Amino acid sequence: MDFPPLAWQGVVVLVVFGVSLLIATYSTYAERVIAAFLQDRVGPDRAGPFGLLQPLADAVKLFTKEEFFPAGANRALFVFGPCLAMITALMSSAVIPFGNVLQFGETAIHLQGIEINVGMLYVFGMVSLGVYGIMIGGWASNNKFSLLGAIRAASQNISYEIAMGLALIAVLMMSGSLSLREITFQQASDAPFVWQDIFNWNVMKQPLGFIIFIVCAFAETNRTPFDLPECETELIGGYHTEYSSMKMGLYLFAEYINVFVASAVMSVLYFGGFNFPFQAELRNWLVSAQGLELVTASNIITILGLVGLFAKIFSFIFFFMWVRWTLPRFRYDQLMRLGWTILIPLAIFNILLTGGLITFGIIK
Amino acid sequence: MSSLFLFLSFVALLSALGVVLAKNPVHSVLFLILTFFTLSGHYLLLNAQFLAAVNIIVYAGAIMVLFLFVIMFLNLNEDTEPHKPALAKFAAAIAGGSLLLILVAAMRDIQPEGYNATSFDSQIGMVDKLGLVLFQQYALPFELASILLLAAMVGSVMLGKRETGERNF
């Protein structure tokens, strides 16, 4: 069958979509297993071997629950809220470069949904839209606690977006490009020494920026210790108090997809994306010692890079869950103080520092 | 391309009408967000990716969240909406109508140049090109605008500042 090159990109988009959903599904399982591990419990082990079918059981339960509409709710927006949360969460994974090029004869498949010139701004825009799902859902529920949760989510996201954007500017000053693919390529290194490979990752040049970014990522995805929008002790369930069945499921799903995307973005921006140590040597060795063609060797490197990127992503997802079951929740005024009076000045200082180091040629 | 343009324009006009005609202020804000999205779509059609992304981040992502925020807090809805006197409605219609008249009169004489395939630069709307133009050709206006924004920011901080002895929490 003759397949036009654009159609391959369509297949990649569908695969990215499917993988995002699959990872979100198994994040719900991983969350419970990790919680059990950290609290010295057994965790889910009834459905299937090691409880691996637990997400399926949850889905059946959520789908068969009663569709409930609270009295006085704005029905259209009540349904629209979770849909919007899900849509914006899924859209942001489109520009992430999951791998380099796979070359099969004439066709080259880029392991990235779509490459755009302003990829980082695209992710940032989608993240900033994510709060609408929460706000609309919280408001449409016609419940004071939901509304308070929604308002909290909005002010928290706006506050931390600023620090996140400022942390990104420091990365931009070094890369000179907004394209995530370009930023990944700049972190590649041909140095014959493992530490130099890793030293080329942005996290080594931007340690402060990375710390600011990861704190903001926790706040943007509404994860503990910044999960104030759904703070049970004060707000019952926050914005999803009135939600049940699959609408509730969509909200939870969107949160896990956001965690996945945030992990992917951090891996790409700061941890070298699909680059891994010794990739150039491995390719040379495959060509010279094993007698493979350069194209085949490059494909093998691409697949290993894909696996490497997912290893980085999974360790970040594990980190998100580890923090959730370790740290208690912040108080609301502490959250705002941290965002406005600590993270933003630190991020501005980081920009000045980066500018100075670039001017004196210490980093590039 | 042309059908995409027509579709975007149709949605833009429809949602802009929705902003004005919706009874519920929250619906109005949501229609306005949709209008911004269609405008971003137009920017993309004009090959201005940076402008499209920034339009979504700044207008749809930040400013409209604040709009929604205030409207939700004030809990405005159809029941509490005050009835405006007929004179105010009349004055608003006249003012809006004359603005439309001026805009149409100003646009009437524009001769669309069309594009010249030889001199057209496809990179014109890209972020690096835009940055060069902003910081070389328009450096002074750009800096002046940033000072204006800074002044506005300082002013809002002053307005929102806590009075002595006042406690918010």
From TrEMBL, chain A:
Gene Ontology annotations of biological process type: aerobic respiration
Keywords for the protein's UniProt record, in alphabetical order: Cell membrane, Membrane, NAD, Quinone, Translocase, Transmembrane, Transmembrane helix, Ubiquinone
Segments passing through the bilayer: 6-29, 77-99, 119-140, 160-178, 198-219, 256-280, 300-323, 335-363
Topology relative to the membrane: Multi-pass membrane protein
InterPro entries: NADH_UbQ_OxRdtase_su1/FPO, NADH_UbQ_OxRdtase_su1_CS
Domain of life: Bacteria
GO molecular function: NADH dehydrogenase activity; oxidoreductase activity, acting on NAD(P)H, quinone or similar compound as acceptor; quinone binding
Localization per Swiss-Prot or TrEMBL: Cell membrane; Membrane
Catalysed conversion reaction: a quinone + NADH + 5 H(+)(in) = a quinol + NAD(+) + 4 H(+)(out)
Pfam families the record matches: NADHdh
Family classification: Belongs to the complex I subunit 1 family.
Quaternary structure (record): NDH-1 is composed of 14 different subunits. Subunits NuoA, H, J, K, L, M, N constitute the membrane sector of the complex.
Protein name: NADH-quinone oxidoreductase subunit H
Lineage: Bacteria, Pseudomonadati, Bacteroidota, Cytophagia, Cytophagales
UniProtKB/TrEMBL annotation, chain B:
InterPro entries xref list: NADH_UbQ/plastoQ_OxRdtase_su6 (IPR001457), Nuo/plastoQ_OxRdtase_6_NuoJ (IPR042106)
TM region(s), chain numbering: 46-74, 86-107, 138-159
GO terms, molecular function: NADH dehydrogenase (ubiquinone) activity; quinone binding
Chemical reaction(s) catalysed: a quinone + NADH + 5 H(+)(in) = a quinol + NAD(+) + 4 H(+)(out)
Entry annotated with the keyword Ubl conjugation: no
Signal peptide per UniProt: none
Predominant location: membrane
Family classification: Belongs to the complex I subunit 6 family.
Function recorded in the entry: NDH-1 shuttles electrons from NADH, via FMN and iron-sulfur (Fe-S) centers, to quinones in the respiratory chain. Couples the redox reaction to proton translocation (for every two electrons transferred, four hydrogen ions are translocated across the cytoplasmic membrane), and thus conserves the redox energy in a proton gradient.
Name of the protein: NADH-quinone oxidoreductase subunit J
Organism field: Hymenobacter glacialis
Classification lineage: Bacteria, Pseudomonadati, Bacteroidota, Cytophagia, Cytophagales
